[in-house]
Amino acid sequence: ELQNPESKSKEISMKVFSYFACQLIVISLFLPSTAWSQWVQQGSKLLPGGSIGSTIYHGYSVALSTDGNTAIVGGIGDNANAGAAWVYTRSGGDVWTLETKLIGTGAIGNASQGFSVALSADGNTAIVGGIGDNTNAGAVWVFTRSGGVWTQQGN
Questions:
Q1: For 42, 85, 91, 121, which has the most beta carbons within 10 A of its beta carbon?
Q2: pLDDT at position 13 over 70
């Protein structure tokens, strides 16, 4: 079947236009109007201080407090898959500092702590999930911060 080359070109152009139009619609639905501004990295990358081993998977899970000044980062591979979570605080607008490394006590086996992490709105309560605890039964550890000191709640 013979096609007019101009017709084929218009068809391709319409497909490309439709694709990009759909992408713009999706983006505009999910981003607030202020999101069109530029994203800027704040400080240098966050590294897992006090990590054990070479395959940490730091960044496997992340969470941020509502005010954006406390972050928690999970690393399931720390210490041969025991896992851990690191808490960072922000000061001066763009300076992030490692506050502590959280390791829940009472883990059974390679818990992979840090598989999931969450922070309360004020950043003073953290929950750290370990999917591998007790032969993959899983567990969670809850920590609270008071005066800059993190304490595990319960066993």
A1: 85
A2: no
Cα separation, 29 vs 7, whole angstroms: 33
CA-CA distance, 58 to 81, in Å (whole number)? 12
Record the tokens describing residue 31, joined without a space. Answer: 């981003």
- Integer Cα distance of 104 and 81 in angstroms: 13
In the predicted structure, residue 56 carries a pLDDT above the cut 80? yes
Output the six-digit token pair for 26.
């999706």
CB atoms within 10 A of CB 89: 17
Residues 77, 59 contacting (CB under 8 angstroms): no
Quote the tokens at residue 12: 């391709």
Residue 60 tokens, joined: 């496997």
> Is 115 within 8 Å of 74 (Cβ atoms)?
yes
DSSP letters of 74-89? EETTHHHHTBEEEEEE
Q: pTM for the whole thing?
A: 0.76
Q: How confident is the model at residue 113 (pLDDT cuts 50, 70, 90)?
A: very high
Q: Rounding to the nearest 10 degrees, give the CA dihedral for residues 53, 55, 61, 62.
A: 60
Give Cα 138 distance to the centre of its chain: 20
